[in-house]
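re: the backbone from monday

yeah here it is again, tokenized this time
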């Protein structure tokens, strides 16, 4: 699966591999995926230097040396691959046939396949700021705290899972990740936000930050091991060996352990690791 952790690890690869290099070619499978024509995309991007790659929510943002940004969003990823080979005419032909997006740099290329759709936007810094106004704070931002979570959540009348996966409240947490965070916190995904107390918010904060830190640091080869409940309904809980259950919350599957998760946190979230 490709969630926030996988996208963050990919951003790090881009930073480590291509920062300081100039873009030499861009190939996009469908012109409708970009906010400008493919011709304009080539004209504006070729020759531009990558200053750094940033992740905001589930977007990868390429910061370019002319002050513009290239913002990439993907849905339903099946494969996300960084290439380190030179990009020549043969590679370009292969990219058009196989890859949905390929960006060639001075020394290597970065390509994507397996996405249901891609959104690629060439925008100014101001336009990016305007778009991000609607997105909640990053879960690992310096000002994230139990008090901030409570401030953003407490007036909501929804389940914990629904609040966690609302991008206006907190950035980048999908339905799948919401289940993982609830499990780490020892809270049922169905619990009502209005019933949470200060201890619950402490547990939720620790679960949110510690699970994401663990997942960001995981190696690609062991990345799947960080998911304790995702898509595992009917399997055995990694903590107590009980059978994981599932329910529907606003039309979305929620997987949980009724033995380890409760209406209120039983122990500090970090103790459940």
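seq for it, each position gets an aa:
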């Amino acid at each position: 699966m490709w969630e926030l952790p996988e996208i963050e690890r990919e951003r790090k690869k881009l930073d480590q591999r291509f920062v300081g290099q100039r873009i030499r070619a861009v190939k996009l499978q469908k012109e409708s995926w970009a906010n400008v024509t493919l011709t304009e995309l080539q004209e504006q991007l070729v020759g531009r230097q990558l200053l750094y790659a940033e992740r905001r929510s589930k977007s990868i943002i390429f910061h370019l040396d002319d002050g513009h940004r290239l913002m990439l969003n993907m849905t339903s990823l099946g494969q996300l691959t960084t290439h380190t080979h030179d990009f020549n005419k043969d590679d370009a032909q292969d990219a058009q046939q196989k890859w949905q997006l390929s960006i060639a740099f001075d020394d290597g290329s970065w390509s994507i396949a397996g996405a249901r759709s891609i959104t690629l936007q060439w925008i100014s810094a101001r336009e990016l700021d305007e778009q991000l106004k609607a997105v909640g704070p990053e879960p690992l931002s310096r000002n994230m705290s139990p008090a901030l979570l409570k401030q953003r959540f407490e007036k909501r009348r929804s389940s914990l899972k629904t609040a966690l996966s609302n991008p206006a409240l907190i950035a980048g947490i999908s339905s799948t990740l919401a289940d993982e965070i609830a499990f780490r916190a020892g809270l049922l995904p169905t619990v009502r936000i209005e019933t949470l107390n200060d201890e619950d918010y402490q547990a939720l904060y620790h679960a949110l930050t510690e699970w994401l830190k663990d997942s960001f640091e995981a190696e690609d080869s062991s990345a799947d091991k960080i998911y304790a409940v995702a898509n595992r309904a009917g399997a055995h809980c990694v903590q107590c060996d009980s059978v994981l259950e599932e329910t529907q919350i606003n039309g979305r599957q929620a997987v949980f352990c009724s033995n380890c998760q409760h209406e209120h946190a039983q122990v500090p979230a970090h103790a459940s690791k």
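The mean pLDDT is 89. The domain at 146-272 is CATH 1.10.8.50 (Helicase, Ruva Protein; domain 3).
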